[in-house]
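agent> call fold_tool(seq_1)
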Amino acid sequence: MQRTKVLYAIQGTGNGHVSRARALYPKLIEEFDVDLALVGGNSDVDLPSAPVWTGKGISMEYGGDGSVDILKTLVSNNIFKVFREVREIPVEQYDFIINDFESISLRAAKRRKVPVLGLSHQAAVANPKSPKTKKVMPMGKLVLNNYAPVRDSIGFHYQRYANDILLPIIHDDILHAYYMPGDRVVVYLPAYSKAEISEKLSSLPYKFSIFHKSIESEQEMGNIRWNPISGKKFSEELISSKAVVCSAGFELPSECLHHGIPLVVVPIAGQYEQWCNAEALGLMGVPALESLSSSKLENALAKAIAQPVKPQHYPDVRGEVIHQIKSWWERMRK
């Protein structure tokens, strides 16, 4: 019997989408013939298999101060190239598309009437029962609801706020690791420049291990160790960290919650999803800062280390994800 052909289209504007794909891919290929498509070039994490198609799509650019640079984002995106990529991506070669908040493959699939199943954290954030930020962010909300709208989806969140929301997918090397607190605070703040991070952290009474895409080789500068982006090295440092400071994305905070690693988040200014995540994390006891401030970060770290969130010990949900995908596909074929 011929196996079902699936295109797994991944948003490549950040590391979280690719990290989820890395964890899920080994289970997916047990059931389907799966090809990968990567749209966006900002991810620093390697895919589990070479993509059959890559594109630029629509991506956001950061200003180095913790916010989205609107002008830089507008300049870097070419609407004519977006239309060309929608025409070029070969979605018609597949039985269905798995879409992780990715706009190009979604629009191509709708044009060519190829079934699409959303598989993303954003689907859970958009759920009416999930926590929402109290900030008024109409543009961010508009993007969340219209960037990659799908009829059918599987969403992931820190907690099961609704029956159709699953808990996070955690990669094996973190899921089954043993957390042993060390003496360094691990930092990953991709929306901030090296200079901005150094200015805010160099005076604090902590040792930091900072991962930043501008770093090519390990550097020691006072209380800061700068590291190039490396998935293996990052995982090793994460499970031996004193605490973690990161943006309010999904995958990394989920890994911290899984082990009960003290956590402070700094949501990226202008990203509605991150502020909703910060709201959800705050309800769980995780400190969130409006921006990177030396004094506020020092206080937040002290609180997070003294009162860490109870380990969530997330189960391996990949089997349930595969079951839901198969059930959805059976319904679509009838």
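agent> call fold_tool(seq_2)
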Amino acid sequence: MTGRWWLPLVVVLVAIGGWRELVEEGAEQPGNPVTTLAEHPVAPGCRLPVSFHLDRVDAEFGLSEREVRAALRDARGMWEETTDAELFREEEGKGVAVRLVFDERQAAALRRDQARTGLEELYAEIERRRERLDHARSALEADIRRHDENRQELAERQAAHQRDVASWNAGEGRRTEARRARLEREAEAIERQRRELNHRAERLGERRDELEDRRAELDAAIADYNARADGHNERSREASGFNVGLYERSGEGRSITVYQATDREQLTLVLAHELGHALGIGHVADPAAVMHASLGAENAGRERLAEADRRALEQACDVTTESTGPTGPARGQ
């Protein structure tokens, strides 16, 4: 079974620039695999029940024996929930030997998985920084609007005061000491307000410069993220086209060997596929099916057999099946 569906490409971010929104820029998504390998070995005929046992789990593989047994149970259940027939029987030391063999394929997958986790954490941190920056920008813009309103109020206050002073100078009205004092107090108040507004304008300018520095730093962080994401995506593309699991028969010996699976969900699907071969089922054309030749976006996360899988089971093993509900993957694509 070939696989690459667990190598999803990391989204590429757009720099903030002139206060642009931080958005996803149509990151590539894994589509149908570009290569199709020749048919894998298939059991010669369906003889039920197919006995199997867990033979080997390399410690370096990264999955515990408990997780592997649970994945085996789920993979077996995907087939058996569609029919009353006994398809499989787990017997210690008998039948198909299931092995998880650690080699460079799994080592590389684990490295990519770890790198992707790091990129996802970095993406989340960039999003948090963007949100904080947007909040600070909104607060600054609100303060600038209030500052402009205060400046307009001051201009109107100055104009009114100038009219009062002109009236005094023109000898209009009574020129009393109380009136003079009011004009002088108003002039002093206007001057204090002017100095306060000038100080506030300087502080607003400093805040704006600080936000521009933060924006530039965030743009640099986004550029670094994009470079790392591009490298990860390229390594993921190059990692397709090899066997992640293989059913083999040699004389009387039969085995299922899994070479790559970074979590229980992936392992379950690989095991379900190879158990299908152990039942004598070949590959099917439907890319959303468990028994499609390759793993891709269409069958990633599948927890139930597709219609094509059920038909293949009926033809290979002469059993009656029925649908167990939605045939699409249980998890969103």
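agent> summarizing second result for user.
Residues 116-238 form one domain. The first strand starts at residue 2 and ends at 3.
agent> awaiting next instruction.
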